[in-house]
TrEMBL record:
NCBIfam families: TIGR00149_YjbQ. Belongs to the UPF0047 family. This is Secondary thiamine-phosphate synthase enzyme. Keywords: Plasmid. The lineage of its organism: Bacteria, Pseudomonadati, Pseudomonadota, Gammaproteobacteria, Chromatiales. PANTHER family: UNCHARACTERIZED PROTEIN YJBQ-RELATED, UPF0047 PROTEIN C4A8.02C.
Amino acid sequence: MKVITRTLRLATVDAIALIDISADVDRLFQACGLRDGVLTLMSPHTTAHINLNEREPQLQQDMLDFLMRLVARDGDYRHNRAPVDGRDNAHSHLMGLLMNATESVPFADGKLLLGAWQSVFFVELDGPRAERQVHLQFLGQ
């Protein structure tokens, strides 16, 4: 069994965005040379997450609209009264309660076993940010 760890770095330009990182993930997977095992993706951020979902523009906009309706940016949040890093981003943390920091994707015969409609998304909830990261750990043979 081998363990290979890589980090994907990306910049975000929107306050809230679904960024399809599937091609980057597949490129890193192909470079690792493993055939069978499992990939774990992890966002080390409290206001950015990993999600498997369908890449379809209208649905992606529906998802963004849903998040913004669910948690108002201008709510009266305690965190915004004394922000730790100068950002009034309580809404971003609250949206994040509904998401995962990690996702696992099995792979077999040199292929990621994503469903026909699944893409890997980096979900930015507090952008824009000059640098975000996704850690990828491949465990396999």
